[in-house]
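task queued by scheduler; priority normal; single chain, no ligands, no partner chains; default sampling; output format set to structure tokens
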Amino acid sequence: MTTRILLTGATGFVGSRVAAAARNAPGTRLRLMTHRTALAGEPEAETVYGDLADPASLRDVCRGVDVLIHCASQIGGDPETATAVNDHGTRALVDEARRCGVGRIVYLSTASVYGRGPFTGLTPGGAEPAPVSATSLTRAAAERHVLAAGGTVLRPHLVHGVGDKWAVPGLVALLRQLGAAPAGCAARHSLIDVETLGRALLGAALSPKEPVGVYHVNHPEPVTCSELLSTVVGELGLPMTVTGIGMEVARSRLAGVPYALHHLDMLAVDHWFADDRVPQDFDCEPGEGFAASFSRHAAWYRQWIGLVPPR
């Protein structure tokens, strides 16, 4: 039996991993929605035009599809665009999926919809979303459209791997601002490798369990703030003047840099999201822990952030 999947965001950081996993999954046929004229590197894939910012363009994109995996999002930018794409665009796409009789909808969201924290071992349903940014606010709205249609929402926290231009680069910017790696911070953070996240999304789409509702999708073992930062420093070979400064010293160094102080304060409290249903419901093992998986991606990060000159 063939499962026909429509994937949005197929060229993105996470969506490209879903596409790769689907190509290796027997019995799946993949349709890629794009607002570009062509998708580089996908000569054999079925493509269909659709622009989330233009709801009329979504007509019939879901025709003949069994499952919708929705990974496309507007991250950053102005609030109007985020609303048009994440909120109104997702609502229009979900409406079209329902009109076309799509049996399952899977949406990639973010744990950022919960707001600032702290969150210690938080399980789905343990707190209501309280988003603070335009991106998180509109992605929370997108979740509501998916959940109202009986769909599945995946909320990862920090996603790392080749192509990450947000999570680890943000930590590197903070460390460069500090000139040192803070130590002694025991706050715990949930992370997931992007390839594992791609497999989890496909697993949610194909699972015979027909998962519904919100899932926290992260490695089951959280990482302390100090371990997270020291791993990044060590694997990337960041030139730190000193190591092991305390958090109060770190805060004093960032007193005149509000955005960096905000990120440090976020790191200093738990953002640990738990959910033991994922391996069984999605048939997706968590894989190796952060230190081992990050090591595999370190060479790419070193080049991306300019520590290694391009060849």
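post-processing summary
- The mean pLDDT is 93.
- The CA atoms of residues 11 and 301 lie 19 Å apart.
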